[in-house]
Specification:
Layout (H helix, E strand, L loop, with lengths): L2 H14 L2 E5 L8 E5 L6 E7 L5 E6 L2 H10 L9 H10 L13 H10 L5 H7 L4 H7 L6
Antiparallel strand pairs: 1-2, 2-3, 3-4
Length: 143
Amino acid sequence: MSKASADLVRRFDAVAGMQRVASADRKTRWWITARRCPRCATPWLVGQDEVVHDFWALKRLSDSAVAAITNEAWWPADFDSYGRFLLRAVDADITARFANADELAYDAHRLEDLSPDMHACDKARALGEDLADYQRLLTLPPE
């Protein structure tokens, strides 16, 4: 295993080992959880995409933010839009390219539903596609 791969596995294990404090609505925001480090008890907002780019992002939370999440179902806006969350992976240069881009048709349709406020160019970029390919994906059935 390469050093980069070993480092990625170590990071994944660290996040996966965190205690889940709360999860956002699994139907509309499945990619967001609040977790707490078992070693230092630091709370984190965790966004994870294992469908398109295999990307994880973390943001440290305050105790008051954790209380708002658990008591009021209030979630910080940092990872609130799936499309904007995917753009974080693109901006960090962590993107996947599919041998058969048609496999992204479901994700393109899902972006239309979950991120209606995003421009089509940004949705295309979030999937690592150009606008013409993104628009073509929307003509395919979302299987």
